[in-house]
Design a protein that fits this description.
Elements (H helix, E strand, L loop, with lengths): L6 E4 L5 E4 L3 E4 L7 E2 L3 E3 L4 E4 L4 E2 L10 H18 L5 H18 L4 H14 L1 H4 L14
Antiparallel strand pairs: 1-2, 2-7, 3-6, 4-5, 5-6
Helix pairs in contact: 1-2, 2-3
Length: 143
C-alpha cells in the first residue's frame, strides 16, 4: 500500500498550508464528534483536515523534513482542537503525541530521531496543547 501524501506550501503566519485536497486518517481518539472550519473528528476516530488548513510544521530544535510533515500536520490539528477546548488536553495529549511518533515511523524517519522527537514533545508540549487561561491579547475588532 503506498504511503499517504500531503501537498502543502510555505506561508507567512504559519509555515505551511495543506493544498490540493483534504487529508483523512483513522486515529485512536474516539468518542466525540468535533467540527471546526478546517478540522473534523468523528466519534469513531476519523480525522479529516481540510484543504487550506495552515500549520507551523515541526516545532522545537528540529529540521522540517518530509518524514516529519504528515505527522506534524496531524499533531498540530489535534493540539489546536485541545487549545480550542474541543478535545480534553489532559485526556488526549498523550494519544496525540503517540500518533506523532507512529506517523514519523510510518513515513521513514530514523528511529533515533523519532525517539528524541517524541521525548521532546512529551516533555515540552503541554504549553502548546493547554487551552489559554485568558483571552488572546491583541485582538482588534472592526468597525
Amino acid at each position: 500500500m503506498p504511503k499517504p501524501k500531503i501537498a502543502f506550501r510555505k506561508i507567512r503566519k504559519y509555515k505551511y498550508q495543506l493544498l490540493r485536497k483534504s487529508y483523512t486518517v483513522q486515529i485512536a481518539i474516539r468518542g466525540k464528534s468535533i467540527k471546526t472550519d478546517f478540522v473534523r473528528l468523528t466519534a469513531k476516530g476519523k480525522l479529516t483536515i481540510k484543504e487550506g488548513y495552515a500549520w507551523d510544521g515541526p516545532s522545537g530544535p528540529t529540521i522540517d523534513t518530509r518524514t516529519f510533515m504528515r505527522a506534524s500536520l496531524i499533531h498540530d490539528a489535534l493540539y489546536q482542537l485541545m487549545r480550542l477546548k474541543r478535545l480534553d488536553y489532559r485526556k488526549h495529549r498523550r494519544s496525540a503525541d503517540d500518533l506523532l511518533k507512529k506517523h514519523c515511523l510510518e513515513d521513514g524517519m530514523v528511529r533515533f530521531r523519532v525517539w528524541y522527537v517524541h521525548k521532546f514533545v512529551c516533555w515540552f508540549g503541554d504549553c502548546n496543547a493547554r487551552p489559554p487561561e485568558k483571552p488572546t491579547k491583541g485582538l482588534i475588532f472592526a468597525p
